[in-house]
């Protein structure tokens, strides 16, 4: 295929090489095609099985469209330009309570981020292979983080509501638990990627384990910790909007009630609040991440 | 302070990195340890500082604690006290990259304060003044507030030596301090070590890859080979034949892998030293 | 030259302090800033703790209650006679995740070209698509599920739609970012051969971005199995329905069994997804932070 026309005396040798290459390449392609076909087949089977299991029907979906659009229409009550003020305040009749819930939602996310990050961060030192000296401790730390992370936050919320009753405490604890698992795992990975050399340096001048962590590890990992924490806060705001569905506080509670009672206008109003908040938080957090901290301590 | 190493050994699994090594270190000497890559030089130094635990043997120290002590058996606080008395300088400097030079050097004082105090960086003005004086000796004061990773390798090594000084050690161990440096910086660093040894009377034990550097700077040379000491004496007593033995020349049969470190070892200070430090050279090079 | 700490006098300290003030203390402004940040964060934390009642005796009471009436009521897990039903529900959960992810990916693929700066010349369209995607993403799966349950009724369909809608948003973002990062030269090559827009996308763009897209899609599938496992709590099908039911009925032992099954499923799917990534695209490299954050 790519024989050089100027190859001269070696042309036959080159042809031989090319022929062999083409043959191998054909075999390789064939193998790849078979693999792809196999994966494709299995995938198609899975999709079909899934369609059957879930009794997926386009018809129900199509049927749902008018209902959904009616839903949407009723979520946005008529707001005329002439009477904008009145219409809007009529729509947001519950504003006082909703914004209080929103504040609670944000504070829940904040508190859970702080608590979860502190606890997860502390555990991450024991869950990093290079820092934990005791294998049993390491193993336990890893399992704790795994369980905290894998059980969904809403399930934690359900469990905490049993003990702490309806309200934000259960929500904060649920999000905290999930956060400590997620942060602990990420932090442990950051910890495992540090350079061990400074630790030797500190140990060699008489430092103990705490000195090693504080001066050898922390300066290396802190920038990553911070950016993960900002990120986690964004995610936790989202979580805090839903734990209210099961009674764990925040604006999710208002939303759930409105949906249950079919107060469509309220649903629309609350969803708008949520969207505006989440977008604002995302933008703000991105800005902070990229500017202040970005330049000060994230530069490598 | 005097150090007496007795039948010290270290094994990593089946591999005996340091084998039954004994020697005395009187106070104030500057000793160069030479040997080819893998001879066990680093392992020996790390055992003396106790970054590595000896498999067997004793490291007797006099004049540091109230009574003579076997450092090989120290634990906990006493062990850390020993490390504070036994400063170490590394080939890769081992500074904390994101902290300032000042903080890096101040860390030498951590063992002199209660843990909580040092964790909060509450060092005394005296510590700080002393740190600046130490940086001055190594001509690094102007960089005191720079981050360690903003410095060149030579500068970082000078900071590391300043840190060692601020520890106020009785003995300074240097593990190939110049192997990552260019010739000019290597000279600056070796001169500094020599000066510290002379002016402060601190014992210096220095692993060196190059024979010539050891001859130029040290009072005494210890040659190691396959974990054992094969030479221990004055530089002038080290014959070419002995050097060849240390570096394992002339032993290889035809076609057997040999070591081109040796060439570099003999041409010494003329070349950049870092090339010689690459392990694995012996696998590619052949003796002609 | 001073070579011992003990020789340092007050005069020496004063001298060095005058010459290198920065070595003794950070500038006042910086110290103030750091202090204020700490104080503000701590104060806000304490305020939250107080506001939510963490500092009251009720909280300690709750902790005790959590220990002896929740955790201890969960073990040992029971309900093995319902195992068949649970497993079927888990199958439904995975199926929901699969269909939701697939649907999201299929819809997002064409839209992601609209949302990519280097593919769409019209700024309003490009920006509008991006914002639209953000809008879809800003609601949690559960919120969408809650709404879809009203629209299409109880059952897995609502869950599939909830996942699909969020994934349309996520995939538009991820795909369009992948498209924006691609190598111009290969597309120019196709153009130089006389290819039109479709050709450029088919031969110039897709081969470059496909591995990345596939990898992201697998990650999201993995993630969506977790999400799908709880959608049933609001009636959108899958194992979450049974879990919510058992929890509300205070049948904690059975709930525990379900949680264990969910966790095992999540692990199994993680391994499967890792295996597939390696097989299909040889994706051995470490996870990017974005993947991790999306994932956990
Ligand atoms: N932590 C360890 N685990 C296993 N083997 C080790 C370890 N450290 C060193 N070794 C082995 O011990 C032997 C001696 O190593 P050492 O680092 O002391 O040699 P060296 O003389 O300092 O060599 P170099 O000049 O390359 O630094 C080598 O064979 C090395 O592979
Ligand atoms: Mg070495």
Task: Please compute the radius of gyration of chain B using only Cα atoms.
Answer: 19 Å
Major sheet attributes of chain A: none
Number of helices of chain A: 12
Strand content of chain B: 15-25%
**β-sheet strand percentage of chain A:** under 5%
Mean pLDDT of chain A, nearest integer? 84
Instruction: Predict the CATH topology of chain B.
Output: Rossmann fold
What can you see in these coordinates?
The complex is a heterotrimer of chains A (300), B (288) and C (296). Chain A is mostly helical and 300 residues long. Chain A folds into two domains: 11-58; 98-295, MetI-like fold (Orthogonal Bundle), CATH 1.10.3720.10. Chain A contains twelve helices and no strands. Chain B has one domain (27-47, 88-286): P-loop containing nucleotide triphosphate hydrolases (Rossmann fold, 3-Layer(aba) Sandwich). Chain B has helices at residues 41-49, 76-85, 101-106, 115-119, 125-137, 153-166, 183-200, 211-217, 240-247, 261-267, 281-284, and strands at residues 2-12, 15-25, 30-34, 56-62, 69-70, 86-89, 171-175, 203-208, 220-225, 228-233. Chain B has a six-stranded mixed sheet with strand order 6-7-8-3-9-10, with helices on both faces. Chain B has a four-stranded antiparallel sheet with strand order 2-1-4-5, covered by helices on one side. In chain B, helix 5 (125-137) crosses helix 6 (153-166) and helix 6 (153-166) runs parallel beside helix 7 (183-200). The N and C termini of chain B lie far apart (48 Å). Mean pLDDT of chain B is 82; it is low at 252-288. Chain C has 296 residues and is mostly helical. Helices cover 79% and strands 0% of the residues of chain C. Chain C is built from 13 helices and no strands. The termini of chain C are far apart. Mean pLDDT of chain C is 83; it is low at 284-296. Chains in contact: A-B, A-C, B-C. The complex binds adenosine-5'-triphosphate (ATP) and magnesium ion. Residues 41-42, 175-176 of chain B line the site of magnesium ion. The site of magnesium ion has 4 residues of chain B, from helix 1.
What descriptors fit this protein?
heterotrimer; A: 300 residues; mainly alpha; MetI-like fold; 2 domains; 12 helices; 0% strand; disordered C terminus; B: 288 residues; alpha/beta; Rossmann fold; 4-stranded antiparallel β-sheet; 11 helices; 10 strands; binds adenosine-5'-triphosphate; binds magnesium ion
């Amino acid at each position: 295929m790519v024989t050089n026309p100027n190859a001269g005396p070696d042309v036959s040798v080159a042809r031989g090489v090319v022929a062999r290459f083409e043959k191998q390449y054909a075999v390789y392609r064939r193998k790849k095609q078979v693999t792809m076909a196999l994966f494709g087949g299995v995938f198609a089977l899975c999709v079909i099985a899934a369609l059957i299991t879930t009794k997926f029907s386009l018809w129900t979906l199509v049927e749902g469209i008018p209902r959904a659009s009616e839903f949407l229409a009723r979520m946005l009550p008529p707001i005329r330009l002439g009477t904008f003020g009145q219409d809007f305040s009529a729509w947001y009749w519950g504003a006082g309570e909703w914004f209080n819930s929103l504040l609670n939602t944000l504070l829940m996310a904040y508190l859970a981020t702080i608590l979860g990050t502190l606890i997860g961060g502390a555990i991450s030192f024991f869950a990093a292979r290079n820092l934990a000296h005791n294998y049993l401790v390491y193993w336990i730390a890893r399992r704790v983080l795994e369980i905290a992370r894998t059980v969904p936050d809403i399930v934690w919320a359900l469990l905490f509501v049993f003990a702490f009753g309806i309200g934000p405490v259960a929500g904060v604890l649920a999000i905290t638990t999930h956060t400590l698992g997620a942060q602990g795992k990420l932090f442990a990975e950051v910890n495992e990627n540090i350079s061990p050399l400074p630790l030797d340096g500190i140990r060699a001048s008489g430092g103990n384990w705490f000195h090693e962590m504080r001066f050898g590890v922390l300066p290396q990992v802190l920038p990553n910790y911070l950016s993960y924490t900002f990120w986690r806060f964004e995610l936790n705001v989202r979580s805090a909007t839903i734990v209210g569905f099961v009674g764990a506080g925040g604006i999710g509670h208002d939303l759930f009630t409105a949906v249950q009672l079919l107060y469509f206008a309220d649903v629309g109003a609350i969803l708008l609040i949520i969207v505006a908040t989440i977008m604002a938080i995302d933008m703000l957090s991105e800005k902070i991440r990229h500017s202040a901290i970005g330049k000060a301590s994230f530069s490598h | 302070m005097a150090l007496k190493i007795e039948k010290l050994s270290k094994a990593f699994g089946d591999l005996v990195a340091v084998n039954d090594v004994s020697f005395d270190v009187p106070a104030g000497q500057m000793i160069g340890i030479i040997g080819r890559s893998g001879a066990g030089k680093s392992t020996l130094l790390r055992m003396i500082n106790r970054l590595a635990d000896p498999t067997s043997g004793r490291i007797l120290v006099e004049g540091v604690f109230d009574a003579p002590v076997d450092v090989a058996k120290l634990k906990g606080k006493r062990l850390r006290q020993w490390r504070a008395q036994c400063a170490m300088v590394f080939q890769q400097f081992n500074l904390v990259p994101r902290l300032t030079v000042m903080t890096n050097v101040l860390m030498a004082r951590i063992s002199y304060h209660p843990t909580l105090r040092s964790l909060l960086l509450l060092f005394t003005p005296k510590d700080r003044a002393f740190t600046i004086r130490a940086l001055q000796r190594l001509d690094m004061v102007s960089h005191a507030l720079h981050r360690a990773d903003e410095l060149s390798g030579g500068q970082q090594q000078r900071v590391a030596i300043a840190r060692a000084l601020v520890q106020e050690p009785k003995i300074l161990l240097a593990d190939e301090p110049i192997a990552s440096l260019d010739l000019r910086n290597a000279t600056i660093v070796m001169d500094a070590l020599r000066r510290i040894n002379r002016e402060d009377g601190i014992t210096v034990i220095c692993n060196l890859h190059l024979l010539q550097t050891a001859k130029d700077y040290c009072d005494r040379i210890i040659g190691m080979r396959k974990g054992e000491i094969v030479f221990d004496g004055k530089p002038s007593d080290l014959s070419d034949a002995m050097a060849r033995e240390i570096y394992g020349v002339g032993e290889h049969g035809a076609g057997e892998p040999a070591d081109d470190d040796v060439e570099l070892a003999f041409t010494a200070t003329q070349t950049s030293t870092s090339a010689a430090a690459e392990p694995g050279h012996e696998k590619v090079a052949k003796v002609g | 030259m001073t070579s011992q700490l003990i020789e340092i006098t007050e005069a020496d300290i004063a001298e060095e302090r005058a010459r290198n003030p920065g070595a003794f203390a950070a500038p006042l402004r910086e110290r103030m800033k750091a202090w204020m940040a700490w104080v503000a964060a701590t104060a806000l934390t304490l305020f939250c703790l107080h506001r939510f009642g963490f500092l009251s005796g009720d909280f300690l009471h709750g902790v005790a209650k959590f220990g002896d009436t929740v955790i201890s009521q969960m073990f040992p897990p029971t309900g093995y006679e319902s195992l068949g039903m649970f497993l079927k529900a888990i199958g439904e959960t995975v199926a929901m995740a699969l269909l939701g992810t697939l649907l999201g990916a299929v819809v997002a693929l064409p839209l992601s070209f609209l949302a990519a700066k280097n593919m769409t010349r019209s700024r309003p369209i490009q920006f509008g698509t991006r914002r639209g995607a953000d809008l879809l993403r800003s609601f949690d799966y559960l919120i969408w599920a809650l709404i879809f349950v009203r629209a299409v009724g109880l059952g897995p369909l609502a869950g599939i739609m909830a996942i699909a809608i969020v994934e349309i948003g996520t995939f538009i973002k991820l795909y369009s970012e992948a498209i924006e990062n691609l190598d111009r030269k290969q597309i120019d090559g196709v153009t130089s051969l006389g290819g039109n827009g479709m050709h450029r996308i088919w031969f110039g763009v897709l081969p470059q971005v496909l591995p990345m897209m596939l990898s992201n899609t697998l990650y999201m599938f993995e993630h969506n199995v977790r999400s799908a496992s709880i959608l049933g709590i609001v009636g959108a099908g899958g194992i979450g329905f049974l879990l919510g039911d058992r929890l509300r009925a205070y049948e904690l032992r059975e709930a525990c069994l379900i949680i264990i099954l969910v966790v095992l499923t999540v692990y199994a799917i993680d391994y499967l997804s890792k295996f597939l990534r390696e097989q299909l695209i040889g994706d051995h490299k470490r996870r990017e932070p974005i993947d991790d954050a999306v994932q956990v």
